[in-house]
Amino acid sequence: MAFSWCSALLLGLVAASLVNADMKLDCRPDYMTLVWSESRSQADTSLFRLGSCVPTSVSAREAVFRVHLNDCNFRMLVTGNHLMYTNELVYYSPPNSVTPSFSLPVVCAYERPKDWNPVIYNPVFNTYGQDDLVFSFGIMNDDFSGPAESTSFSLGSFIHIMASVEQQHHQPLLMLLDECVAATSPELQHEVALYPIITNKGCLVDSKTSLSRFEPRVKSSEIHLSLQAFRFALGEEVFIHCNLLAWDPNALDHTKKACNYVKDHGWELLDHPTYSSICDCCESSCKSRKTRSLTSGKHGVERKAVLGPITITDS
């Protein structure tokens, strides 16, 4: 994994909701084993999925997953002194089946190593004919030189957020924040209250009513966001969900951009203010196109990421 484990496993949590079924989870330092078993055969065990992964093995009454935590689209969160890897076990029911489709949360939690750097999301994946890309997403100190010492912020202060992509020998890529929302849950669900931060493919809508801003770039592979602490969910745990986008800097358009709102001026493109007209759609709709991945020899790669929990206080 991307960091050294120096503490023992703390806990593994799962929940099963079907009668005559059992789900067991064994969390190890860098991999996990999940076993779904039934006392009588109700579900087609080959139709289970753990995130993006199919079962390692199946039988009539059992589905087994043995996977690494950097596979299957596991999401990593920091909660206090713990690192938590979250995913979902999903059953896709075939037509006319007596067993409905369902999903269950899967969580592996570990003690947070004392010397661990708080990179909240750190997926590593292969790209076509290129070295691996590593996305990082974290809350930083005031000058973005290191991780923040606290995740508690007073209303009106700034939350400094950095997203980056480690490129090694890869073609140069521009780091963008495509969409970001604040929520009161680490998982986005229909009933969860949301606070929009970045919408419409890179439009920092929060900057229209606050002092939030994308900071001038230091590196093309990093993007710095100074987010003014908002009134949403005061005193509660808040999670910031973002879509990270690493893109060809020569292929920017109205769906691949970073736009600040400047009072008495309007929308301004972070990287090339002369071409700020591509931000005009921030007032209407910046129509999206399918993300074209580097695995097909095109222009970019995207990853979902979560920060939190953070707390905003009225003091």
TrEMBL record:
Q: Which GO terms describe its cellular component?
A: extracellular matrix
Tell me which PROSITE patterns the record gives. ZP_2
Q: Which SMART domains does the record match to this protein?
A: ZP
Give the keywords, sorted: Disulfide bond, Signal
**Single Gene Ontology MF annotation:** acrosin binding
Q: Where is the signal peptide?
A: 1-21
Q: Which Pfam families match?
A: Zona_pellucida, ZP-N
One record GO biological process: binding of sperm to zona pellucida
| Domain named ZP: residues | 26-266
Instruction: Tell me which PANTHER family the record gives.
Output: SI:CH211-14A17.6-RELATED, ZONA PELLUCIDA SPERM-BINDING PROTEIN 3
* Protein's name in the database: Zona pellucida glycoprotein 3f, tandem duplicate 1
Q: Which organism is it from?
A: Amphiprion percula
